[in-house]
Structures are given as C-alpha cells and as structure tokens.
C-alpha cells in the first residue's frame, strides 16, 4: 500500500487533552479535512497558507487595538466636556455613548480575531 510510516503518515501532533479537543471541534470542516492529509508537498502548501492567514489576523488585531484606543479616547473627551446648556450635555452624552458602543463592537471583532488565531495556531501545529 501507499502508507507512510513514522512521522510522515497522517497528521495530528500538537498534544492531547481537553483544550486540543475543544480547538479541534472549532475547526471548520474544510480545516478538519486538512488533518487527514499525508502528502508532504500538499501539507507544506497548507502550512504556508495557515501562516499567511495568521499574519493577516495578527495585523487585524493590531489595527483593532489601535481603533479601540481611539474610540475610548474620544469617549473620554466627550465625558470630560463641560457643556453649558442641557442640549449640549445631551449631545455630549450621546457622542460619548456612540464611541463607547463603537469600542464594544471593535472589542467583539478583536475577540473573534483572537479566537481565529488560536484556531489557526492549533491547525498549524497539527499540520507540522
């Protein structure tokens, strides 16, 4: 048969345990299919693709962290504003709230990116 022996046959390193099983369960079906690959050349291309995807997710994390800081800073500016009239106070609170909501949305996206990075790290380790 065409089975590879030793470390070349099949993929699935990366340690065991509940954490690995949880991460494996988060993989998309197409990603789980990669774990069954045995062709070394195909695996090299897939590992390179995972590395590229990780770079993109990390860049997005950095971008989101900067944008969260900006939104929080803008909210702080509106919180510290000293409006004179009632309408100005309401407008300042509305603007503060808008920036706080924006920061919350960005934090949700940041969490998604971090989960994707964890998933891809697991996949990368499993493929190597």
Description:
The protein has 128 residues and is mostly helical. Helices cover 76% and strands 0% of the residues. Helix 1 crosses helix 4. The protein is elongated and about 70 Å long. The two termini are 23 Å apart.
How helical, in percent, are the residues?
A: over 70%
Shape: elongated
Average residue pLDDT: 86
- The secondary structure category is mainly alpha
Low-pLDDT stretches are 1-9
Distance between the termini: 23 Å
What does the radius of gyration come to? 23 Å
Strand tally is: 0
Strand content: under 5%
The largest sheet, given as strand count, sense and whether it forms a barrel, is: none
In quaternary terms, these chains amount to single chain
What string, H for helix and E for strand, traces the elements in order? HHHH
Q: What's the helix count?
A: 4
Strand and helix map with partners:
Blueprint: H1 18-26, H2 29-34, H3 40-79, H4 86-127
Helix pairs in contact: 1-4, 3-4
Q: Which key phrases capture this entry?
A:
128 residues, single chain, mainly alpha, 76% helix
